[in-house]
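User: Fold this, then the next.

Assistant: Folding the first:
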Amino acid sequence: MTMLQVERVTKTYRGGVLANDDISLDVAAGEVFGLLGPNGAGKTTLVNQVLSLLVPDAGRITVAGVDVVRRPDEARRLCSFQPQAAAPVDGLSARQAVEIIGSIRGGRHSAVRTRTGELLEALDLGEIADRPVRMSGGMARLTGFCMAAVVPGRVVVLDEPTNDVDPLRRRALWQQIRALADGGAAVLLVTHNVLEAERCVDRLAIVAGGRVRAIGAPGQLKAELGAPLRLECTLDPESPAPELPPAASLTARTGRRLLAHVQLADVGDAVAWAQHAQDQGAITEFSVAAASLEDVYATWVQMEGTVA
């Protein structure tokens, strides 16, 4: 069942800045849908319209069938939201902040207390849960997620939920995001962390320049673009870097790490080149792997001339 429907939404700011240009997408119950794009792509503008904080110039948005322009209060009650900024919880403990939001959202006291405890433990916040102190950025982000998830709406909007979160807790957070969808919510995940999004999303939209450039499941988008293979090499620090073969296209070089893209038809030539370079001592190791969602994202951004 479709919980969030965005139909041909356009928004222009003063000065003629076109933030959203004819955007359409939908998110079903039980689905994690990624909204992926560089800074300035129009993601935040779209989120603000979904939450009835901005009115579209054209188009229509519904949350569980409720029009967000005609019935904004009702539509807003059907959503829960973690903003990009850390939750302002100074002076409260994490447990107090989450339980207060749960009560405001109409949860029963006993259910809110139980759910709060479960979330705090799942995200390894048990030790600081009852300390009314100023939290680090990561702890505040995790608390903000708990506030959005304690009594989740039919649509849950998460804006960069993993910012400043350490790797172990980040893994637990992705599990909780998945659990929200498995519990029946439609999750709209806003991010530019492509590698992490690939682990969690069912479908995604790549947004650039205010428009949806591609939409679908990660595997589908890779297939549609004929996404290249990744050739990764570790350069020998004592040898000059070898010149790439015509079959390979340089993507990045960071320190001793070299990353290039190779089309499937050319992978044999690329591997032969890498083996020869390794025999000559120019590289110490290499690998060829399937394209990632990051490769798809980079391809679309380059195609559209958008700078991340």
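Now the next one, as you asked:
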Amino acid sequence: MRKTILSLALICCGIQAAVAADQCAETACVSVYTDTNQIIIEARKGSTTIKKVITQATKKPVVKPTPVAKAIPIFMLPTSAPQVVIKKPRVKRTYKPRVKKAVTSVNLNDRLTTMVPTAGVAYQPEFEPLINVPVYFWCDLPSLFQSRVDIIGEIVDVALRPSFEWSFGDGSFYATTENGAPYPNGTIQHTYTRPGTYQITLITTWNGSYTHNAATRAVTGTVIKSSNALITVVKAPTTFKG
């Protein structure tokens, strides 16, 4: 009896695997997940598997414009003087045949240079804020990051949203999904009670979903970015009256 049940279970698993393989034979099976703090988009169609990575793009070098040569004025000789034409000797040049470089096969793990942005930290007052006075904090990240990827002829739309955890350097933390803003609309505020220089650390966690063939699924895992800034807080001067 046990052998019969085990045999039926193995047959069912084989049928399910065959159905899954047939589904990926005509239409690509897509999954989106994170690995080493990067968004990985993986598509499988038949025996072909392709991965694309959403990572931070490198800055392109600045190309300086080529200087334009200045025109040199040409003066006409007097009509009475004969013009002397000097022929330059003709030099026969030999050209080396061009050798075609071997083209390497394209790696399936090709990279998509779409940037997952890193936050820039700002605060107000920006110059030596005072103790016992609220300081406003914010970052310059968008509330939504979107990227469209073409992989094996399939379109995958990725949408990520950030959440934030602020560390103000004095042992205080604050978690939020808002970007913050300057005075008077800012919702991220912190008051320092002692003068000194503190390191602000902002941890941004990106998570979201992807859409393929009108079906939306959650991205497996998260992408975490870290930003830092220094703030110097001073004590207010004391003034005696009387």
